[in-house]
UniProtKB/TrEMBL annotation:
<keyword id="KW-0597">Phosphoprotein</keyword>
<dbReference type="Pfam" id="PF02518">
    <property type="entry name" value="HATPase_c"/>
</dbReference>
<protein>
    <recommendedName>
        <fullName>histidine kinase</fullName>
        <ecNumber>2.7.13.3</ecNumber>
    </recommendedName>
</protein>
<feature type="domain" description="Histidine kinase">
    <location>
        <begin position="494"/>
        <end position="607"/>
    </location>
</feature>
<dbReference type="InterPro" id="IPR036890">
    <property type="entry name" value="HATPase_C_sf"/>
</dbReference>
<keyword id="KW-0472">Membrane</keyword>
<keyword id="KW-0812">Transmembrane</keyword>
<keyword id="KW-1003">Cell membrane</keyword>
<keyword id="KW-0418">Kinase</keyword>
<keyword id="KW-0547">Nucleotide-binding</keyword>
<keyword id="KW-0902">Two-component regulatory system</keyword>
<feature type="transmembrane region" description="Helical">
    <location>
        <begin position="311"/>
        <end position="330"/>
    </location>
</feature>
<dbReference type="Pfam" id="PF06580">
    <property type="entry name" value="His_kinase"/>
</dbReference>
<dbReference type="InterPro" id="IPR004358">
    <property type="entry name" value="Sig_transdc_His_kin-like_C"/>
</dbReference>
<feature type="domain" description="HAMP">
    <location>
        <begin position="331"/>
        <end position="383"/>
    </location>
</feature>
<dbReference type="InterPro" id="IPR003660">
    <property type="entry name" value="HAMP_dom"/>
</dbReference>
<dbReference type="GO" id="GO:0004673">
    <property type="term" value="F:protein histidine kinase activity"/>
</dbReference>
Length: 608
C-alpha cells in the first residue's frame, strides 16, 4: 500500500513536479495564513461581541438610572419642601389639631395635589406617571398620590423592611426590590413593584415619617425589549436574585451562574444547558443592584461573523482564481519544455534530423537553441569521425604500401651483412644492419606503440643510413630524461620529423639535429630541433595550416621528398597522434629565417 501511494505521488514529468511544487508553495502559506486569520478573527469577533453587549447594557443602564433617579428626586423634593415638612411636623407634634376644619382640609388638599403633581409629572415626565407616592407619618396619618381604595398605606408598617428604616441616616435610601404589587388596579397587568423609602426627620433628627415612591416593575423591563431586542436582559440584586425581567415568572429566582466579583462591567462566555452564552454584568448606581444581559454566543457573533465570513469567502475565491491562473500559466510556460522532451525522446530513438525550433530571450528559449546547436554539432562530429576513420584507414594503407612486404628480403639483407663483415667492410655491414632494423620495424604490424628508447634507436639507425647517402653528414644529438625512456609512443612518430629536418631544414647539408624528451606533471614533451635555414612567417603559417587540416597525401609526399624512405610527412604524424591521444595532444612549430626549425609535441600520459 505504501509503495502504491509512493508511486502515485511520484511525478516523472518535470512540468508536474514544477506545478506541484508551485501549488504546495502557495497552498501551505495560504492554509497557514487562513489559520492565523481564523484565530485572529475569532478573537476579534469575541471582542466585538463583548463590546456590543456592554454598550447595549450601558444604554439600558442609562434609562434605568434615570428612572431610579427620578424616584429619588421625588423623595428628595418631599424631603426638601419646607411647606410640606412644616405641615407634617405640625400634624405629628399636635400643632395642627388647633386648626379649624377648613384650614386643615386646605392644607391636606394642597399636600395631596403636590404629591399627585410629583407622581404624574415630576422630573421624569410622562414615563413616571404610574409612580405611586406615599407619605406615612408616625401618628398614623398618611398622604398619597393615589386613591386610598387602591391600598391601605398603614399596611406598610407590617412589611419586613419597615423595622430596618431606623438604621437610615440623613438622605440614605432603602431600596425595596421587586415585591408583589399592592395596588388593586395594577395587580393584573403589573404583578410586581419596586420602591424606594426615605425618612422624614425633625429638628432633633428623630424620624417622624417616611416617604415611599413606588413604580411598577413593568416600567423597567419594557425598556429591555425596546433597547436590546436580541438579548435577555435582567436586573438583579446583590444576592443575584432577579428584580426585573421580561418574563415576570422569573422574578425572585436566583441566577446561579453569576459571579460575585467587585462591582464593575464584566463579560464572560458561560456554558448554560450545553450552550455557550455571552453574559455581561454592569452595576447600577443605586442599591447595589446590577444589570445582566445574556445571549447565545453564536447569536451574538452572527452579524459580526458574517462580515468576516464574507471576507474569508472573498479571499478563498481569490486564492482559487489565482491558483487556477497559476496552473494555466505554468502549463503555458512549460509547453516548450514538453516539446523539448519529445524532441529528446525522438533523438534517443536515433533521429538526429529533428529540431525543437524553440527560440526566445528567456532560459527555455536559449536552452532550445543550444539543444538544436548541439544536434547540429553532433551531426558534424559524426561526419568528422567518419572522415577521420576513413583517413586513418587510408594512412594505415599508405603505411602498409610503404612497407617492404617480403620477409625473405630481411633474411637476404642479414646474409649480405654477414658476408660484408666477413670481408672486413664493417661500415657497409653497419649500414646494412641499420637498414635491416628499419625494415624489421616496418613489417612489425603488431607493435603500434613502442617504448621511447626503441624509437630513439630507430631514428639513430635512420640517421646512419641518411649520412651514408649524403656527402655532408648531419649530427644527431639526443637529450632524453631517464624516466621518459620507457614511455610508450606510436612508432615512427620521430622518424618523419628527422627526415623533414634533414631534407627541408638542413637541405641535405651538414648540421645538427637535436632530439629532446622531458617529463612534465602529466605530459611528455618531445622536440626535434635543427640548425637549418628556417622559414619565414608566410611559410611557417602555411606549414601550420597544412598540419592542422591534415591534408596529407602519400603520393605527393613521395614526390616532395624525392622518393626517400618515409613519405608519411608531418601531417600524417599529426593526424595519427591526434587520433591516438585526442584533443589533449598538441604540436607546435617554431621557426625563423637563419635560426632553424623546432617541432615540439606535447603528449598526454596517464598517471601510473
Amino acid at each position: 500500500m505504501l509503495n502504491r501511494l509512493r508511486e502515485y505521488f511520484t511525478f516523472r514529468s518535470f512540468r508536474h513536479k514544477l506545478m506541484f511544487a508551485s501549488i504546495v508553495c502557495i497552498v501551505l502559506p495560504s492554509v497557514l495564513s487562513f489559520s492565523i486569520y481564523n484565530y485572529l478573527t475569532e478573537g476579534a469577533v469575541r471582542k466585538q461581541a463583548v463590546y456590543n453587549s456592554q454598550e447595549s447594557l450601558k444604554l439600558v443602564d442609562g434609562y434605568v438610572a434615570n428612572l431610579l433617579k427620578s424616584m429619588l428626586n421625588i423623595a428628595n423634593m418631599i424631603q426638601m419642601d419646607s411647606d410640606m415638612n412644616s405641615y407634617f411636623k405640625q400634624r405629628v407634634y399636635g400643632q395642627a389639631q388647633k386648626w379649624d376644619s377648613y384650614t386643615r382640609f386646605t392644607a391636606e388638599d394642597r399636600v395631596r395635589k403636590q404629591l399627585v403633581s410629583l407622581a404624574y409629572a415630576g422630573i421624569w415626565g410622562r414615563e413616571s406617571r404610574n409612580s405611586y407616592v406615599t407619605v406615612l407619618l408616625n401618628d398614623g396619618t398618611y398622604f398619597t398620590s393615589y386613591p386610598t381604595d387602591e391600598y391601605d398605606p398603614l399596611d406598610l408598617t407590617k412589611e419586613p423592611w419597615f423595622t430596618e428604616l431606623q438604621s437610615l441616616r440623613g438622605f440614605q435610601s432603602h431600596w425595596i426590590s421587586s415585591t408583589p404589587t399592592l395596588f388593586a388596579s395594577e395587580k393584573k397587568s403589573n404583578p410586581y413593584q419596586i420602591s424606594v423609602v426615605r425618612t422624614l426627620r425633625g429638628d432633633a433628627s428623630d424620624i417622624y415619617g417616611i416617604v415611599i415612591v413606588t413604580i411598577m416593575e413593568n416600567q423597567v423591563n419594557q425598556m429591555f425589549e425596546r433597547l436590546v431586542q436580541k438579548e435577555e436582559v435582567m436586573m438583579v440584586d446583590g444576592s443575584n436574585r432577579i428584580i426585573s425581567h421580561r418574563d415576570s415568572s422569573k422574578i425572585g429566582q436566583t441566577v446561579s451562574f453569576l459571579n460575585n466579583h467587585e462591582p464593575r462591567a464584566a463579560s464572560e462566555i458561560i456554558p448554560i444547558e450545553h450552550e455557550n452564552y455571552l453574559v455581561t454584568e454592569l452595576p447600577t448606581q443605586f442599591a447595589g443592584w446590577k444589570l445582566v444581559s445574556m445571549q447565545p454566543y453564536e447569536s451574538a457573533i452572527v452579524d459580526i461573523n458574517s462580515i468576516f465570513t464574507k471576507v474569508f469567502v472573498f479571499q478563498l475565491a481569490s486564492f482559487l482564481m489565482f491558483l487556477l491562473l497559476l496552473i494555466y500559466l505554468m502549463r503555458k510556460f512549460t509547453i516548450p519544455l514538453v516539446r523539448l522532451g519529445k524532441v529528446a525522446a525522438t533523438v534517443q530513438r536515433g533521429n538526429l534530423d529533428v529540431r525543437s525550433n524553440i527560440r526566445g530571450p528567456d532560459e527555455i528559449g536559449r536552452l532550445g537553441y543550444s539543444f538544436d546547436q548541439m544536434l547540429d554539432k553532433v551531426k558534424e562530429m559524426i561526419l568528422e569521425v567518419s572522415a577521420t576513420q576513413a583517413r586513418k584507414r587510408k594512412a594505415e594503407l599508405a603505411m602498409l604500401q610503404a612497407q617492404i612486404s617480403p620477409h625473405f628480403l630481411f633474411n637476404v639483407l642479414n646474409s649480405i651483412r654477414m658476408k660484408i663483415m666477413y670481408r672486413g667492410d664493417h661500415e657497409s655491414a653497419e649500414m646494412v644492419g641499420s637498414l635491416s632494423k628499419l625494415l624489421r620495424m616496418t613489417i612489425s604490424q603488431d607493435k603500434n606503440d613502442i617504448p621511447l628508447h626503441e624509437e630513439i634507436e630507430l631514428v639513430t639507425d635512420y640517421m646512419k643510413l641518411m649520412n651514408m647517402r649524403q656527402k655532408e653528414k648531419a649530427e644527431l644529438q639526443v637529450a632524453v630524461a631517464a624516466e621518459a625512456l620507457l614511455v610508450k609512443v606510436p612508432r615512427f612518430c620521430l622518424q618523419p620529423l628527422i627526415e623533414n629536418a634533414i631534407i627541408h631544414g638542413l637541405n641535405r647539408r651538414a648540421g645538427t639535429i637535436r632530439v629532446e624528451a622531458d617529463m612534465g606533471e602529466r605530459v611528455l614533451q618531445l622536440s626535434v630541433k635543427d640548425s637549418g635555414t628556417g622559414m619565414n612567417a608566410e611559410e611557417l603559417e602555411a606549414l601550420r595550416l597544412k598540419i592542422v587540416t591534415a591534408q596529407s597525401d602519400e603520393n605527393e609526399a613521395r614526390k616532395e621528398h624525392g622518393g626517400y624512405f618515409s613519405g608519411i610527412g608531418l601531417a600524417n604524424v599529426y593526424e595519427r597522434m591526434k587520433m591516438t591521444f585526442g584533443e589533449a595532444f598538441r604540436m607546435h612549430i617554431q621557426s625563423a629565417e637563419g635560426e632553424g626549425t623546432a617541432i615540439i609535441m606535447s603528449i598526454p600520459r596517464e598517471e601510473a
